[in-house]
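chain below, 432 aa
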Amino acid sequence: MFEAKIGGVMPVTAIVGGQWGDEGKGKVVDMLAQEADYVVRFSGGDNAGHTVINPMGEFKLHIIPSGVFYPGVKCIIGNGVVINPDVFIRERNELISRGVDVKNVFISDRAHLVLPYHILLDGLEEEARGNKSLGTTRRGIGPAFVDKYARMGIRVGDLLLPEYLHERLEYVLECKNQILTKVYDAAPISLDEIYETCLKWGKELAPNIKETTHIIEEAISQDKKIIMEGAQGALLDPDFGTYPYGTSSSPLAAGGCLGIGIGPASVSATLGVFKAYSTRVGGGPMPTELLDKTGDIIRDEAHEYGTTTGRPRRIGWFDAVAGRFSCQINGMTTAIMTRLDIMDILPAISICTAYELNGKIIKYFPANSGELAKCKPVYEEMPGWLCSTKEVRCYDDLPLAAKNYICRIEELIGCQMSAVCIGPSREQTIYK
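prediction:
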């Protein structure tokens, strides 16, 4: 089914967000994982949230891959992820309590840890920015990635090496406590306390910690079916997104190669996930944002509130300029549209086909967030269909206006939709 309906995507398929995150990647991974052998999360941390609804119920995952609901699927948290062990343990225990088998969940020993001082610094840094805050989730993700690249990080594998761990923590805390006490006038972090916490984490996580690059290499050599599960969306990428209003690791398909430890030639397909409209959480420019009754209607109909933060998501019309750019930088071979059913109630629907910047029409996505903030969307209006699509199970049975809307977006972004989702459950998916 996987190959026939989505289009021949083995052995490795990258599933990435085409917008600002929250596109429904969790549902897509859960839906496709039934035909996979491995699901590997490659970026981000518990600042990402995937809501999955399946016959076992509704689940909100923050760190464990969305393939966990299939007992035969091995789920790996790759080296490109930063992990708060408390969040992982809590999420794992919640899954166990609800009857989910987690024996095949593994963590790369190369993944970096989110430690208490990262969370503390995240909040202090956001407060210091005042009205120029970035809108982070304050979960320590950014500071953990900063330490990774500053060569001050503590890795998951370090938890199993007590002497080395103590040596590393002693050095890092000397630096962090200088910042906490002298820059932010905050209390220092106790070396003994954090060391004891890390030792407890090590005992708790030891069965899950693996050298995962070897596992993945062996799986590829055996032609196993692997899904690379992305977090966030392309427009939050630190290089190509709305910098500095973005995330701290690459959510792009190429980032997936780094985040699990494979070469780019191993990736046979990239599947982009797009909502039928746009949403965003946090600060930064969003050209098609709707600050009116229509935006409120879409938000309420779709229950658009962050899985991780609970914050109301910003709502906008579909931005095809951004969507085309996302397809380009990800090398998308196919796409899936989610939340089409939310548009059922709208008499007319707009698509952004270009921007107006300083009196000129442009069709590219500006690199500078200041310029993007000045862009005015150029809209093309299409008629709505004003009838429910939630029970439709065949593409041909969709209202003509809905099919026209899908086709127009395909033309504008330069990528074909292989499926359309008209609800949160697995069966509410229409394959083209």
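The longest helix spans residues 162-182. The domain at 112-205 is CATH 1.10.300.10 (Adenylosuccinate Synthetase, subunit A; domain 2).
thats it, cya
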